[in-house]
Amino acid sequence: MILTESREDYLEMIYVLGKQYRIVRNVDVAHAMNRTKASVTTMVHSLVEEGYLVVEKRGGHLALTEKGEAIAKITYDRHVFYRDLLIRAGVEPELAEREGCIMEHILCEESHNKLVQYLAELEYAGSES
Predict the structure, then answer these.
(1) CB pairs under 8 A, 24+ apart, for 50-54?
(2) Looking at the chain, which runs of residues are DSSP E strands?
(3) Tell me: the pLDDT tens digits for 62-101?
(4) How far apart are CA 94 and CA 100, in angstroms?
């Protein structure tokens, strides 16, 4: 199944919350994403069925599978890349955060990698001057 933007956002949020708090619950995701607990529960169920997430039997804590963490990390890294790029270009941080979240989903992997490479080459050329 191709992951939707929404699924990627959920995986990314669980990844970020896991890095901050180690233990992630549905209610934490609902609060962080401004969603209802019911909608989070529905999405969690889907992500478990698709093999991206497991729910610990004791405590109901959410844990990304290896496959889920790989997707979440890629999504998060792209988010940070675009957010930081926009901030460096002079965009206000709050707007850069929102738009970075949108941009992380737009470009295919090849285009994203080409852009990263191009900007790295520009920075390298600028440092040689």
Answers:
(1) 50/1, 52/7, 52/11, 53/11, 53/14
(2) 53-55, 62-64
(3) 999 999 999 999 999 999 999 999 999 999 999 999 999 9
(4) 10
